[in-house]
Amino acid sequence: MPASYKLIFRISFGHAFFADGILRDLRMVPVPVCFDKLRRAGLELRAQEDGIAVYGDEKAIARLRLHIGAAGRSLGMAFQVFFTDPHFFEYTAPSWPSGKLLFLDTADSVTDDSGRRIVHATPFVEASAFLERDHARLTPILGERVLAPTPAMVIQVDLSAALLDVVDARQRHFHIRFDAASGHWNDGKQGSGDARPDDDPARDITFRHFAGVNIADRRRAHLFLAKGAIQMREVSPPRLRLRPAPHEALKAPANRMAAAGVG
């Protein structure tokens, strides 16, 4: 990309399910009206690891200012969002209501304590952001006909003269973050000792011993059931660790005690 091009705006997605907090399995497509605006202004749309970024040179920025002036208001740049991981809706909160689309607008964004622009006022996307397909806010963006394939989400960028004047690039970078869904999970641990909660993010969740079970190679394992919901994670932290029975603890040094398994 030529050095004369500067960032106009960027949209990034995050997700609490992933260890690094980045949501990668998605595709963003400008709606037809937005595509025409990008083309007429001479803007460059680039896919990013976690979303998209739009760039332009001084001539493109000047054209945007003319379009904004002619319209007498900011330009709405709307994008359809498709989540390409087939399991996305299983580990994501809030759950997707049938027949509705998630809609977010950067005009509603807020700045968090670190200076980032968050498109939703809460730490994560909320269920109140879902709209009916024929909602008055969506019809001007998507048109009367049902798009095929239907996107799961629409994000609109409020492209104003004020945004073009922003000096701090962080204020042109908009963030969207999903929370992880919660469920009831089982923890199976090998060994003959007792088990207790480990010191980890889920330490407020307690477990009850459900049963002893036989596993491969004639080994025994203990099955523990969570008493509450546990958030799904791409990599689950250890939630239990084995502790030898009192008579076994006397025979073995502390550094040879059984290590934790992964929940």
From TrEMBL:
Top-level taxonomic group: Bacteria
Protein name (database record): Uncharacterized protein
